[in-house]
Amino acid sequence: MLISRIISFGLLKNQHHSIIACTRCFLSSLSHVSLSNNDNNSKQSISSTKQTDDNNEWLWAYLRDRKSFMDLSEEHRRRVVEIEVQTLRESGDRIPEVIPEERWDELLNLPTIESRKTLYGYLFLRELYRKRRSAVVATNDIRRAESSKRRQTLLAEGKPPTNYPGYSSIFRHLGRQHEKLVREQLLLAPARLGEMLVIDCGFEQDHAKQHYLSNLIDQIQYLFADVTRYHSPSFVYLCNLSLRGRLRTAFEQRAALENMCFETTESSYLDIFPREKLIYLSPDSNNEMTTFDHDAVYIVGGIADITGKKPLTFGKAKRENIRHQRFPIDRYVKFGGGSGKSLTLDQVYNILMTLKHTGSWVDAFKYIPDRKVIERYSERTDNKRHDRESFGPKIGLNS
């Protein structure tokens, strides 16, 4: 009912505009042309309105018979989406000003208006972010131009050039290139020591929707931003990354992968690392992880949070005959009834690095958001439970 009302409203509005246009054309012809020419123009306008009615006959049949959106041809679906976008924009919904061409294929394959409105909202936020980003870039360009003029003025006066207004400083100004060099220096030591973390990007075909890939890229970028938090972070490998896949294309639209200091390869981790060193982290594994193994190479599945997901990582570890483990989350954290236990890539990375540096699961699980947690267990309580489980049967207590 909603889509029929929207499209019928758009059609009535288009017809109203066409009638007004024909009326204006008819009145202008009355004032400048003879009566015979006016009759010809009126006949042409009537024929044009009849032609538009004939062209829109499929749309009236679509609304009258309540046909499925996917039963229409691609051209007709595009026309329906255009009317839908115009009507929703005028009604005050969050609709982007321009829909990117690469999004039209996904938009035309969404069967319901609710799913299309979800994509409209996502594109609206992305467009708003790009506008804000362009405004920040323009402000930075103006600031750099003013700084360059100030430096030229200082050089002309014989003074030392500096970016600090009004005074000189012994400290050097650090820009983005210097920050990148600092990140690379932090990653050189773990890369030389062989401490690796693998993100398996081989689940691209399981992400049916484009915004799942965008969510996955966001998580990888958040992971890269947390590298400087640790004095010896593990070096990150992006394996099974197809050179012509959708994930690589979406990465290139955001930022170049070379700027993240990650090792990207199309090869599998089985071709790079020994099989006996690999450990696949999967929430569906029946092997509980106890401590951080500095000689192991941990693998994390590159999967965004999907409702009703299948045990993809566990199944892949079983097929490839790789060791698999899961975090002992239930021993330290009690989740809420409506919250899922799935973790993002940056949360998994922070948990592993905190466990690597401190050896404490309590400190590591602090990176699980509080919105998902009802209660956090202390390490002392957990140690008592371990003692009861190990020594209880020996002294006659129930385990």
UniProtKB/TrEMBL annotation:
InterPro entries xrefs: MT_TRM10-typ (IPR028564), MT_TRM10-typ_sf (IPR038459), Trm10_C_MTase_dom (IPR025812), tRNA_m1G_MeTrfase_euk (IPR007356)
Chain ranges of the SAM-dependent MTase TRM10-type domain: 182-375
Keywords: Coiled coil, Methyltransferase, Mitochondrion, S-adenosyl-L-methionine, Transferase, Transit peptide, tRNA processing
Gene3D superfamilies referenced in this protein's UniProt entry, alphabetically: 3.40.1280.30
GO cellular component, one term: mitochondrion
Region of interest called Disordered, as start-end residue ranges on this chain: 379-399
GO MF annotations in UniProt: methyltransferase activity; tRNA binding
PROSITE patterns per UniProt: SAM_MT_TRM10 (PS51675)
Superkingdom of source: Eukaryota
A biological-process GO annotation: methylation
Annotated compartments: Mitochondrion
UniProt-recorded name of the protein: RNA (guanine-9-)-methyltransferase domain-containing protein 1
